[in-house]
Write a structure and sequence with these properties.
The protein is mainly alpha-helical. It has 20 helices and no strands. Helix 6 (about 115-125) packs parallel to helix 13, helix 6 (about 115-125) crosses helix 16 and helix 14 (about 235-245) runs antiparallel to helix 15 (about 250-280). The protein starts with a helix and ends in a 14-residue tail after the last helix.
């Protein structure tokens, strides 16, 4: 009787495991199978073949995209992790002015689409952008080129600082400040406290964020599509997206082969993440009675630190969003055009007159709200299933939900299965 009752109690957990496995591994298996076919699933002439891998491994654009992808990922990490760590220390441990106002602003790039940010940089700092034309009139030249690969790396790094900030700041809030206060008593400067005490204590969080950001760097799509396309810069995600246009016919088998390569590159990152989490307990501090940490006084550097944070906010958030907002009120823009003479509400009137644009806005909001709610519910059940019983099933779920599959990788699956698609990384219509 007890055995029967235990089986019934484990049934909901089994259902969660089964549904999770089906949702993750069935599309993944379609991608892998498609990569070993000579044509799409629905083609009567398909046969088992390695032609897809032979094509991409002999295509110079693939190696260009692979090289650029690693450059972007490494550059993103090199920029985002130090800045995220500095921001986390300033916001959590110091008396930085305006912290309550600054903290919500830091997270803005997470909630704004990369394509919107990319478009904002184009209209604000592109060849005929607002700030570019003003720089041209003042200096006689434009000191930047946002379409250059180095500029794209810098922009991607700056816009991913909030991801590093979230992990590192959460870790800083969870550790005691006793060691830091001892360092202050010993005469350490704020810089010494940050580099020698605070950030080393949250090294696992920094390493975890490093792995996560490297993976995010490999799957950057929207920003690279907007800023990289004018000068032919590609990463694997944009290379995958352009394969159909490159050959002129649906090339789902080639896209699947690229997707398999991308998955194989990123799977070791998941293994590394799990290893880092197993060693995190080595960095636990022993603390006494809980008490609110005293803010580290920055002294004469207080306003300098505030100015640095304000500069990052301006470049990362202010420039692209100002560009988007200004361009939305201007019908025509270019060299010699007066900004004030072109201000109007014509673009907003056009939106209300175009049913397709309104439907696109409604669909985007519906996907965001409904998709986000479903994701929260799914992860709630998965979290409960993992928390109740630490066993092999828990480990299976743990690795399954972390399978490194960028949303664009699933794109070739739906057309191959007979579905029509529109690229929105999740906007699927039958």
């Amino acid at each position: 009787m007890d055995a029967l009752r235990r089986k019934w109690q484990s049934l909901p957990r089994g259902i969660v495991v089964l549904i999770t496995a089906l949702v993750i591994y069935i599309p993944l298996s379609f991608i892998v199978i498609q990569s070993f076919l000579s044509a799409p699933f629905f083609s009567p002439s398909k046969e088992w073949s390695l032609e897809s891998f032979e094509f991409i491994f002999t295509d110079s654009d693939f190696y260009l995209a692979l090289k650029s992808g690693f450059i972007l990922a490494f550059g993103l990490v090199i920029i985002a992790i130090p800045l995220g760590g500095i921001l986390a220390f300033l916001m959590v441990r110091t008396d930085l002015p305006g912290r309550r106002i600054i903290e919500p602003l830091i997270l803005v790039p997470i909630f704004v689409s990369p394509m919107v940010l990319g478009f904002g940089y184009v209209v604000a700092a592109g060849p005929v952008g607002f700030f570019s034309l003003w720089a041209q009139s003042l200096l006689g030249f434009v000191p930047w080129n946002i379409y250059d690969m180095s500029s794209i790396v810098v922009i991607a790094g700056l816009t991913h600082v909030p991801h590093a900030y979230l992990y590192i700041s959460s870790a800083l809030r969870s550790v005691g400040s006793d060691v830091e206060e001892a360092a202050r008593t010993a005469g350490a400067t704020p810089l010494q406290v940050m580099t020698a005490v605070s950030l080393p204590m949250v090294r696992p969080a920094m390493l975890y964020a490093t792995v996560l950001l490297f993976f995010l760097g490999l799957e950057v799509f929207g920003l690279m599509l907007v800023l990289g396309d004018p000068e032919g810069n590609m990463v694997l995600a944009t290379y995958l997206y352009k394969l159909t246009n490159k050959l002129g016919t649906p090339s789902y088998h080639l896209m699947a082969a690229v997707a398999v390569v991308l998955i194989c590159i990123t799977i070791p990152l998941v293994m590394l993440q799990r290893r880092l989490m197993r060693t995190a307990n080595r960095f636990v501090t022993v603390k006494g009675k809980a008490s609110q940490a005293r803010a580290l006084p920055l002294g004469k550097w207080r306003w300098v630190a505030g100015a640095v944070v304000a500069f990052w906010l301006t470049v990362t958030i202010g420039v692209p969003l100002i560009g988007v907002i200004l361009r939305s009120f201007i019908s025509n823009w270019g060299v010699g055009v007066s900004l004030w003479d072109e201000l109007s509400l014509n673009t907003f009137r056009t939106i209300w007159e175009q049913p397709n644009l309104l439907r696109a806005i409604v669909n985007s909001m519906a996907i965001g709200v409904i998709g986000g709610a479903l994701a929260v519910v799914c992860y709630l059940f998965i979290g409960i299933a993992m928390h109740r019983k630490p066993d092999n099933v828990t480990r299976f779920l743990d690795y399954s939900v972390l399978v490194p599959v960028p949303c664009l990788v699933y794109w070739p699956v739906w057309p191959s299965c007979g579905c029509s698609y529109s690229y929105q990384c999740g906007s699927i219509t039958r």
